[in-house]
Amino acid sequence: MTRAPDRFRGAIGGPRHSSASDHEWPKEDRNVQEKKPLYCHDVDVCVDELIAKVGKRIVLGIPLGIGKPNSVVNALYQRAKADPELRLKILTAITVEIPKGSSDLEKRFLGPFVDRVFGNYPDLDYAIDLRAGRLPPNVEIAEFFLKPGGFMNVPMQQQNYISTNYTHAARDLLDNQINVVAQQINTREVDGERWLSLGSNPDVSLDLLAMTEDLRRQGRPLVAVGQVNREMPFMYNDAMVRPAAFDLVLDHPCYDFQQFGAPNMPVDNADYLLGLQASALIRDGGTLQIGIGCLSDAIVHFCRLRQQRNALYRQLLSELRILDHYGDLIGRMGGTDPFEQGLYGASEMFVNGFLHLYRDGILKRKVYDSVPLQRLLNEGAISETVSEETLQVLLEQRVVSPWLTGQDVEFLRRFGIFNNRVRYEAGDLVIGEAIRVPAQLNRSDSYEAVIAHGLGSRLLGGVLMHGGFFMGPRDFYEALRTMPEAEARQICMTSVRKVNHLYGNQELATLQRREARFINTTIMVTLLGAAVSDGLENGQMISGVGGQYNFVAMAHELPDARSILMLRSTRETGSTSSSNIVWNYGHITIPRHLRDIIITEYGIADLRGRSDREVIAALLNIADSRFQPELLDKAKRAGKIPQDYQIPLEHSCNTPGRIQTRLAPFKEMGLLPDFPLGTDFTEEEIILGRVLKGLKQRLATRGDLMKTLVRAITVGAAPEGAKRYLARLQLDQPESHRDRIFQKLIVSELMAGDYL
Fold first, then answer.
1. Looking at the predicted structure, is the pLDDT value of residue 576 above 90?
2. Residue 581 sits in the same domain as residue 449
3. Which of 343, 480, 597, 661 lies in the 20 to 30 Å Cα band around 67?
4. Same domain for 692 and 583?
5. Residue 619 maps to a domain
6. pLDDT in tens, 367-426
7. Tens digits of per-residue pLDDT, 459-511?
8. 514 shares its domain with 418
9. What is the distance between the terminal CA atoms of the chain, rounded to a whole angstrom?
10. Secondary structure tally for the chain: helices H, strands E
11. Facing residues of 424 across strands?
């Protein structure tokens, strides 16, 4: 017979009342109100109601990325264009735009692709006018993170850029006196109740919605507008709000539109070497943060190879001499074994790569919103399998009292330690319909009843992924839309302050984010370890700080975390190469005192706690060898490295040609595909993309321009193998002299690339 453990029997001096902080109880729902939103079926009616509530001076806050309610924003913008008395300021970030192409060939290439991939996605009218210089004087657009490289030559966006950390965005929006918050949402009935989901963007909206009632009590009008779009994946957990959170909801199927799909881009040799090295620095059982783009795709690709074909993964690391140079570092902070415990994702951006890691059994370490529960899991005192031992440990550690309170029972039910047949009533435990015993686990009858009939089987409520917003290709959104609810609930889209921040929930976040690897990209690094990630020294902004600073700083605060910045060693401008490792630079994003780990295609530099001399030496080792002598000379002239210092011989052959030679066998084995996570491009489009990219580079360089034209002129009739490519560009039957030249250029490039 099962008995209550002796240590819980006998005299107990009354019940121990568990505190909310012990269990991390969810706070009272911030959106519970009696009011209901006004539902509109016509966007113009919605805009009428909005203006009636706040007047003709509108400061509109809309989410970054794909969460913008395009129909509402476009209708409001067109209203402002038609009415000069209506003053409209839009505050946002990452305004995405359908690609259009700058040349005739690019437009021919993009046309069918855009129709197929972007479907009925409505471009934002303000972005079109902004780029064309047609924005009316009564409209202003300000962003705190620009689409990377997208607005370099748009003076208004450069002038209106707001430099801020992502975690400060809600504060800064309020300081700009926003009076309208608008958001794309979805709606669904969950457990018999109607809920709205903030979908991809609870990041800043959760914080703003929480502030609306306080602002209204202060007499400041603030209207929340939601646009229902059934194409937006319905996300659960923190992303769910009650309808009362919004004042106006635009809901009609005619306003549903396809989400903006960011297609995967090709991964090249340098990207693959960066990703391979980064993948070996990720600790099994740890935490991962990555961003969007080909570098992150490369990391995910090699994590999957590490998991599925481990011997081949180790062979790569060995033959590329990564283990020879960095084996000690990899052993201390990463690993080469498969992911037995798995990873947990904590990333401001939930990208497609995380979904691949989930499907391949790598993203599988769950975290729980309970300090004592998470601590016991980390220590190995309990597992996710619930048993009598689980309950004993919780009692021993006084997570719950032997004299159970209603709060204790709710905690045990919430996390699946008690099954849903158990409930608390007036000091008793009621299990099903037939069992009623005192809620005192120091009594044998009560304890035996719980063990026999009241225990769950596995912990509930675990989360594999915390994210602030998501963006990715079409199949990523489709996977989220069709994911079973039980799986979808393992993804928690939430406030960016919760993901990018430690403070406010530091104890829990520290326990959850064990062995964190925060992996981001940067544009340039100085030889003293400062990073340039968002702008140029002339003041022009390429993108924004976003969350990078937060993650770098957090890596220095968490006890076993590391920040990893990935950097392509060079950049190409026409036929000119420049080093991305520089002596110094007139703009920085990450100061040198936060330097940690830097990776280029040529190696890894572990900079944390190192002297300036050691930092310079480590970064010289991973610089392109064409620029090492000049960089070393500048360091010597500044007196920051000994005058007799020489770069080690094994690091003095860092050239693109050597990379290509070293990777060639693995390319032939099919281990380094152009699109490791799949692509929306067809086979013809992949090849044409390479052809057009190469052609653009050659035509922009005077020496190559003449050679390219001469070679094209000598091309005769288009060979049979070229016709499908020419048809794709509408050049199979050229009618003008210009089209005939285009045809010859394309055929010439196809032949030169051996694609025929």
1. no
2. no
3. 343
4. no
5. yes
6. 999 999 999 999 999 999 999 999 999 999 999 999 999 999 999 999 999 999 999 999
7. 999 999 999 999 999 999 999 999 999 999 999 999 999 999 998 889 999 99
8. no
9. 79
10. 29, 25
11. 429
pLDDT band of residue 34 (cuts 50, 70, 90) is low
CB 349 within 8 A of CB 471: yes
In a domain, 28, yes or no: no
Strands 570-573 and 603-606: unpaired
Rounded to whole angstroms, the Cα distance separating 309 from 317 reads: 13
For residue 734, give both structure tokens.
């050229």
Q: Hey, what's the torsion of the CAs at 622, 627, 628, 632, to 10 degrees?
A: -130
pTM above 0.85, yes or no: yes
Domain that holds residue 512: 269-366+464-656
Higher pLDDT, 699 or 336: 336
Instruction: Tell me whether residue 30 is in a domain.
Output: no
What's the CA gap between 655 and 414, in Å, rounded? 57
CATH number of the domain within which 507 lies? 3.40.1080.20
Instruction: Identify the H or E element spanning 212.
Output: helix 205-217
Please give the pLDDT value at position 485.
Answer: 97
Q: Compute the mean pLDDT over every residue in the chain, rounded to the nearest whole number.
A: 92
Instruction: Give the span between the Cα atoms of 215 and 197, in whole angstroms.
Output: 23
Alpha-carbon distance of 707 to 718, in angstroms, equals 20
Which amino acid would we find at residue 203?
Answer: D
Nearest to 199 by CA among 407, 493, 631, 603: 493
CA dihedral 496, 498, 504, 510 (to 10 degrees): -130
In sequence order, the 6+-apart residues with CB closer than 8 A to the CB of 699 are 705, 708
Give the end of a domain, one of 209, 231, 255: 255
Residue with tokens 């001399």: 613
Beta bridge partners of 581: 525
Please state, in angstroms and rounded to a whole number, the distance separating the CA atoms of residues 469 and 63.
Answer: 9
> Highest-confidence range of 23-37, 592-606, 691-705, by mean pLDDT?
592-606
Residue 694: per-residue pLDDT: 84
CATH number of the domain encompassing residue 223:
3.40.1080.10
Q: Residue 309 has which token pair?
A: 């074909």
pLDDT tens, 221-262?
A: 899 999 999 999 999 999 999 999 999 999 999 999 999 999
Residue 671 within any structural domain of the chain: no
Q: Which of 195, 226, 255 is the last residue of a domain?
A: 255
- Residues 349 and 415 placed together within one structural domain of the fold: no
Length of the chain: 756
Encode pLDDT of 392-403 as tens digits. Answer: 999 999 999 999
Domain count, the chain: 4
Assess whether 354 and 486 both reside in one domain: yes
Residues 248 and 186 in one domain: yes
Which two tokens mark 296?
């992150």
Angle 462-463-469 from CA coordinates, rounded to 5°: 160
Residues 358 and 400 in one domain: no
Tokens representing 341 are 């415990």
The pLDDT of residue 450 is above 70: yes
